Amino acid sequence: xxxxxxxxxxxxxxxxxxxxxxxxxxxxxxxxxxxxxxxxxxxxxxxxxxxxxxxxxxxxxxxxxxxxxxxxxxxxxxxxxxxxxxxxxxxxxxxxxxxxxxxxxxxxxxxxxxxxxxxxxxxxxxxxxxxx
Length: 132
Known about the structure:
Number of helices: 2
Radius of gyration: 14 Å
Shape: globular
Helix content: 10-25%
Structural class: mainly beta
Largest sheet: 10 strands, antiparallel
Strand content: over 45%
């Protein structure tokens, strides 16, 4: 599967502005922009296991495509939602538990990179990962 493997963040585009829009305080935004995030993805059919490891936490997330689950962002923001596969792109549709607002997330392979795109309140950010 294309997403399988270990990926390490290489660079960000508009990530601090995205975190600001999400309500993350300035100190956490500065730390979050340099979190050294590593993502390990294992796919077995419609089931995914994603291990996120950063300077701040390590968490294992298990989900099945199209099935709603709960997730907490590194800053503690709680979400509920699901991932779906649309073509070669993982599309996440999530709702914040605190304010009911929508967060969209996309994961796709572009060239030799995993690109994660986040959209919240009209602000788009991207994180680019290289395979480890």
